Amino acid sequence: MARRTREEIEQQIVEGLAGPGWVVIDDFLEPDLWRALARGAWHAEGGGGFRAAGIGREGRLAAAVRGDRIRWLESRPAERHERCFLQRVESLRLAINRRLWFGLLDFETHYALYPPGAAYARHLDRPAGRPERTVTLICYLNEDWREGEGGALRLYLADGGHRDLLPLGGRAVVFLSECFEHEVLPANRPRLALTGWYRQRVHGNVMV
Ligand code: OGA
Ligand code: MN
Which single residue of 15, 30, 101, 126 has CA 20 to 30 Å from 91? Predict the structure, then answer.
């Protein structure tokens, strides 16, 4: 398949958010880019750059709920491929705001590394303590992922069913943060993703 333009990819995401509220894009990041991001993340992990993830604003440790290790991305990273990733993210933010009027202000994102056997129990990305999180964007950074290796993102849909989405390198899953519960199933190999949230401004509990 010929490579699609950024505009075509962004259009598909906008239509997904406006329609069912979720969408899977298999070519969101090109192979050179996601492989460079993966290499950088593994290098950082080797240097002790990841820490166990917490839950909620206080970041309490909760290994029973989520077993991943994370590393936050700075807003102005030194690494060229990380800046390139943030350009893609910014271009999508503008496309969503232009067409859907969400008023997304910014994006926060971290790498998430699940060791074999680790999982993240069913949850919403916009619990009471995080009302500003509006759109979730997850980008996968794994080479040659097979069905039998586990590690799917299980997305629970409004009709009571669910979809299992494998964490394939280059693939992005985008959804409305307040609408879809989801979980990460355990895998039998390490599983790497870049998970992020577009945020709206919140005053108290009121969105403006
Ligand atoms: C999360 C999350 C899903 C995934 O970090 O909140 O749900 O597929 N991640 O990595
Ligand atoms: Mn989540």
Answer: 126
Ligand 1 within 6 A of CB of 193: yes
Return the pLDDT at 2: 77
Residue span of the structural domain in which 30 resides: 6-50+66-207
In whole angstroms, give the CA distance from residue 130 to residue 123. Answer: 13
Answer for the pair 199, 134: CB distance below 8 angstroms, yes or no.
Answer: yes
Classify residue 96: in a domain, yes or no: yes
Dist. CA 73 → ligand 2 center (Å): 17
First and final CA of the chain: distance in angstroms? Answer: 42
CATH of the domain at 97: 2.60.120.620
191 lines ligand 1 (CB under 6 A): no
